[in-house]
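Z., the sequence and structure:
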Amino acid sequence: MLRAMLFAGVAFSALTPAFANQSFDAVLAGHAVLPAETFIDPPADAPADLKVSGKFATGAVRTEALGSAEGRSAGRPTGVKVPFRGQPVQGHSGIKRMADGTFWVVTDNGFGSKANSPDAALFLSHYRVDWATGTVTRLATVFLHDPDRKVPFRVVHEGTEKRYLTGSDFDLEGFQIVDGKIWLGEEFGPYLIRADMSGKVEAVFETMADGKPVMSPDHFRVTTQNPGQAMPANVNLGRSRGYEGFAASKDGKFLYGLLEGPLWDAEKKDWEKVDGRQSLRILEFSIAEQKWTGRHWKYVLDAGATAIGDFNMIDATTALVIERDNGEGTPDKACPAGQRAETCFHDLAKFKRIVKIEMTDAHVNGPVRKIGHVDLMKIQDPDKKARKPLNDGVLTFPFFTIENVDVVDDKHIIVGNDNNLPFSSSRNPNKADDNEFILLNVEGLLKAK
């Protein structure tokens, strides 16, 4: 538990630079692929609108004809077209290993924004990964719904009995399962959602930091402004910069929500920073008290990074965080220098890391300590486990968004991408990315102090 630290550990942490971290090797131990175009049916009692998804995915204009509008990734056609019959099993944005070796995975809001995702259902899927065959089997899916009207604002399917929730209601980006309840970290508000194991919403909590609500422009209390008027003073977080990582203490008493973007510092008229680098809040929530404790930590982005992707605890005081840039693709498929085209990558993936951090009582209200990291662009593959082509003898994970990491055992972690179907093509410039999971031996990182 974070509140009971040994003096020696606190003293060491206090003297260790927050930004210093060592590089460790990552060795591929398994690779599994769920094809990009994998779809499931919505529940039988869901509104007919959810039987076809992506009708608004490419913009605010409705597209009715199935497969009539091709997705693009940074201007490159991906070969996959919307609308889809059914719901795509994509947007993997948080993962949790279960005691039996299976995994629960949350799917995000659908197509990237409130405006374009009203026909994207919100759900979590239970998977079994077979590393020997490289296959992923879906065991169950839980769809989020709100029959008891716990959501404090109007939802897309307001007038229905079951009130299935959509990507225009919430953007689910992380979760934990604690004592039979699903706790979901949401990006639009940002909000914290509690649901039972059937997906029925039981409560929605607004986020608090420094005694004040955390509100993005998409928070339900924010109203549209007339031209020339400033954004309301209570907006203190950028759009789509809410929870991206969402962890739980090992004793099940606390949740830790990691924002994707910094809070706005009204006094300095700037985003929160530490030594000139953007700083993201980790906010603590007490499950027993059902409220934010007021404690926080700061996750400081390294030079070259633009966001985090996921967050899970290793033990009582250390955790794993995905830290990344916005690039995608590898040099072998790069555009000529200074050029941009539909058939090549112009902004290559460079910074894709899994970082081990320490967050003790000594770090409360200050930066976490970065202990070490592995580079996902340099994954060793001595046993030829890769199911995708190597680059210069190593497996790369060059995805725009990588949003799944959890500990498997004392040597291994699992990492997965968010393929943003039909919009991401990070391995091949013109082919939509599959959903990939990799099992990595990172014993050195997990043992690092």
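Residues 7-15 form the longest helix (9 residues). Confidence is low (pLDDT under 50) at residues 1-19.

Let me know what you think.
H.
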